[in-house]
Amino acid sequence: MKKGLKKILGFFLATCMLVGMSMTTYASENENQPEAGDIVDGSMLIKEDYSESILYNPARGNILNRGAARISEIGSGQINAYGAVMPAVKCDTLRLEMTVQRLVGGSWANVKSYSDISYNASLLAKSYNCSVTKGYYYRVKAACIATKGGTTETQMPVTNGIWIG
């Protein structure tokens, strides 16, 4: 009886091994890839046509009132990057540094940068169209800088990541 039980058990184990070795398994192509709803480095990944971030200065008597950044999908693998420096008073210099970033793996990589400066101004707003590779999330990071006299104030708005497909 023991000999018959050993044969059955051996046959069963051999069958399990053969079935297990012949099974095809598939790994997900996007395994561990960020997806809509995830937050990566402070930016939520969204499936929208645009994203905007406006930072306000709550302090009274400030120089820099608002800093803004926006990214918009305009179609055919094109995005629009917009940024604005909005001071409360006329400033000696206004500076806007914008960077378009693409999500690669789990981190943001710089794609294109823009730099603008304006003198004796009370507003600096710029908009640029940029060709991008489809199939990625993109965001705009901006540095909004206002200087009056010897005082400099900055704001760093960052948009959410939008899918360009």
UniProtKB/TrEMBL annotation:
Q: Which domain of life is it from?
A: Bacteria
Keywords on record: Signal
**A UniProt-annotated Pfam family:** DUF6147
Identify the InterPro entries for this entry: DUF6147
Per the UniProt entry, the signal peptide is: 1-27
Q: What is this protein called?
A: Uncharacterized protein
- Species source reads Candidatus Blautia avicola
